[in-house]
UniProtKB/TrEMBL annotation:
Gene3D superfamilies: 1.10.287.130, Histidine kinase-like ATPase, C-terminal domain
Organism: Pseudoduganella danionis
The name this protein goes by in its record: histidine kinase
Principal location class: membrane
Domain of life: Bacteria
Catalytic activity field: ATP + protein L-histidine = ADP + protein N-phospho-L-histidine
Pfam families, per database record: 2CSK_N, HAMP, HATPase_c, HisKA
Domain HAMP: 215-267
């Protein structure tokens, strides 16, 4: 074997056939599904109905011929009697000929004495088989299926009680009449033909009616599809539920809910883009004005002053763009999923406060942290939570005067881990506490620099974590004119893991 053939053989052994396509990725037809579930039982029941019809037809065909056999046995039994202890029959030859007269089937009869001796008729007709404990009785005519010379026959038989002496049990003679099954089979076939042949005509009609009924029943879906397709790209109005069948109403209601949310989202995006464009005009216009002014200046001091203003405008524009990006990231975060993880809220708050210490020194504001010594764990996105807390600290540092203080506090109660940011500034009036979370909203009379997006980012990230931002006056404020503000977020504590038996404490 050459080296190339060995490599080819190894490759053939390593080959794995491609996996079958997952059934979930295959698009199914609703019409075909309903048609399959309707026709499959119908086509399954049809051969069952044929089999049942055949059995019923055989039963119906047996009844008249069984009655005729019963009459023959009764008549023949009336001709059997015992005289001087011998069994004799009073059946004349003409009666025997009438008994055997049949143009289609062969008829056999037999008379046996009490001891099985042959009295008259066909010797080859088999006797009835009785159980060891079963005794023959003369009460009724009985029927059984057997064979005669290899041909199936239907046999009617009865036991005839003969004359007997007092005190001695009367002996029983056996009378049997047998008939082949040709007439029965013909009658059963005629019955089956009369029942089955119309089904061959009815079945295609039923299939056509089922097809038509399904097409007619699913036509509202096609009409709904045409109405939706005929809409304009900007038409997000709800679909009228009264124009669709009751079974489709839940689907239409869900679609209307989605259209409402989509319309609200599009309107929010349009408003956001318009507000962002409007807000970007101010720093960009300032940068352009300062740059043009610097170009016209000849004094180096004036040029330096214009460049400083240009740097401030650039810084404001950069901050606005960064906050717009932060808000976009917050809005596109899933509420629950792989981004959530178990983290220490106290450690995250402590490290975030350390990042803002230098900024607080520059603003001459006392920034502090209060929290537990042990880690306080919650489920959340660490990047988004750090962004949220940074915006709360930045908002406090910007809107309170120099010499005030900002405290970040982490604590817990029985069910929540609580994050608080409090300051000793001018506070937020109760009428303004809901509006401050709106995008680009600024409290009138406030001269602090800002984009108006910080608290909007805070609320969005809080919603992504399933919590609300609550605003109060600072209960630790000491000056009536500076009531301060307290921002509070209560995160649910994660459930405690179950204690394994091996880890359970032992109190022996």
């Amino acid at each position: 074997m050459t080296k190339d053939s060995a490599v080819q053989q190894d490759a053939a052994l390593d080959y794995q056939p491609p996996a079958a396509e997952a059934d979930e990725g295959i698009q199914h037809s609703l019409f075909g599904e309903i048609l399959d579930w309707m026709l499959a039982p119908l086509l399954l029941l049809w051969p069952m109905s044929i089999a049942i019809t055949y059995l019923v037809a055989k039963s119906i065909a047996n009844q008249p011929f069984d009655h005729a056999l019963e009459d023959s046995v009764t008549v023949l039994a009336q001709q059997v009697r015992a005289v001087d202890g011998k069994v004799i029959k009073g059946l004349p030859g003409s009666a025997r000929d009438i008994l055997r007269a049949d143009d289609i089937d062969n008829v056999y009869f037999q008379i046996q004495g009490p001891h099985g001796e042959h009295i008259d008729g066909d010797r080859d007709l088999p006797p009835p088989v009785l159980d060891e404990e079963e005794l023959p009785t003369s009460a009724n005519v009985h029927f059984r299926n057997d064979s005669m010379h290899g041909t199936p026959v239907r046999i009617a038989y009865a036991y005839v009680r003969l004359e007997h002496k007092p005190g001695v049990e009367a002996p029983l003679a056996l009378v049997q009449v047998a008939e082949t099954l040709e007439k029965r089979a013909q009658l059963a076939n005629e019955i089956i033909k009369g029942v089955i042949l119309p089904q061959f005509i009815i079945l295609p009609i039923v299939l056509a009616l089922v097809w038509f009924a399904l097409a007619r029943g699913l036509s509202p879906l096609a009409q709904l599809q045409e109405r939706i397709r005929a809409r304009g790209s900007d038409d997000l109005s709800p679909i009228a539920p009264n124009q669709v069948p009751e079974e489709i109403s839940p689907l239409v209601n869900s679609l209307n809910d989605m259209l409402t949310r989509l319309s609200s989202s599009i309107e929010m995006q349009k408003r956001f883009i318009a507000d962002a464009a409007h807000q970007m005009k101010t720093p960009l216009a300032g940068m352009r004005m300062q740059s043009e002014l610097a170009l016209r200046q000849t004094d180096s001091a004036e040029i330096h002053r214009s460049l400083e203003q240009l740097a401030k405008s650039s810084e404001a524009a950069t901050r606005l763009v960064n906050q717009l990006l932060a808000l976009a990231r917050a809005e596109n975060q899933p509420q629950a999923g792989t981004s959530m993880q178990l983290l220490s809220l106290s450690d995250l708050a402590r490290s975030t406060v350390q990042d803002w210490v230098s900024a607080s020194f520059a603003a001459r504001i006392d920034l502090g942290y209060e929290g537990p010594d042990e880690p306080l764990e919650i489920e959340g996105n660490p990047t988004m939570l750090r962004e949220m807390l940074s915006n709360l600290i930045d908002n406090a540092l910007r809107y309170i005067p120099a010499g005030a203080s900002v405290t970040v506090r982490v604590r817990s109660d029985e069910q929540h881990a609580i994050l608080e940011v409090e300051d000793t500034g001018p506070g937020i009036a109760p009428a303004e506490r809901q509006r401050v979370f709106e995008r680009f909203y600024r409290i009138l009379g406030n001269k602090a620099e800002g984009s108006g997006l910080g608290l909007a980012i805070v609320r969005e990230i809080a919603h992504q974590h399933g919590v609300e931002v609550e605003i109060y006056n600072n209960p630790r404020a000491t000056q009536p004119k500076l009531p301060g503000a307290l921002f509070r977020l209560a995160f649910p504590l994660p459930p405690e893991p179950p204690i394994e038996e091996s880890e359970a404490p032992y109190y022996g």
